[in-house]
Amino acid sequence: MVHSRHLFHRRLFKSDEDCPLYLQKVSEQILRKCHGLPLAIIAISGLLANKEKTEHLWNQVKDSIGRALERNPNVKGMMKILSLSYFDLPLYLKTCLLYLSVYLEDSTIKKKGLIRRWIAEGFIHSEGRYTAYELGERCFNELLNRGLIQPGVTNDYGIVKSCRVHDTILDFIISKSIEENFVTVLGVPILTIGNQSKVVRRLCLQGVKKRNSTVLTADLVFSHVRSLTMVRGLLEIPSLEEFRHLRVLNLKDSSELKDHHLENIVRFFQLRCLNLKRTGISKLPEQIGCLGCL
């Protein structure tokens, strides 16, 4: 319990001694509900860090943890704690968080690339004297402060340049993305389409082999896809002709891709972000210069 208390207070105060007397009792009660799970403590402390330090508000959070577990006795407490953190997010941060579902487990996610994709998707816009990228950095840092993403590489000035997502949090994000039809993930056996909408908004293809390429024709409508991500070495490359409204096309590490796969890229008149790192593409079509948004 001592280590749990130290982790909790370190994220909210400078030290254990700095916790106000009027919050000490409710702090102990919250920690008991976290059952000593570091990830739960980080998530709850991240939630509390964005609230006023009043006994009333902290008691509300404590009671919410209890009610969540009572209503869902068969669901792991960790997932319910993450649900509380998720529903406490403003809408723009929920959207930015859900987008992480297109990344593989244990991925190192570069901040610059992630923010550019958020902007290309239209999640973030410039406001007043702040550029879209500057506001994207704010979103990134807020997710860090809330403990929903973990810092990766930092530069000499202590600025975080990349992040990772804890496996449990990524599982939660993926399940929430599927539930809200935010992202459709194909090629992973444990992620079935089920009752998900047939109209796909964002598509992530993971390891689609020739023998199971039927997932690409599973009565899904691709004409509204805004973001397409291909990962884990596809052996069966889908035709891109149907993806008319693409804004983000991420083909990074798809070495099977060849020049002819991008013959019709000029049709993607809304394309804002294109990643071809470590692909088999050696030359871009001359018409790519006609894509005014890229």
From TrEMBL:
The Disease resistance R13L4/SHOC-2-like LRR domain, residue ranges: 224-294
Recorded superkingdom: Eukaryota
Pfam families the UniProt entry points to: LRR_14, WHD_DRP
Transmembrane segments: none
UniProt KW Lipoprotein keyword: no
Domain Disease resistance protein winged helix per the UniProt entry, residue ranges: 103-173
UniProt keyword terms in alphabetical order: Plant defense, Repeat
A GO term for molecular function: ADP binding
Designated name of the protein: NB-ARC domain-containing protein
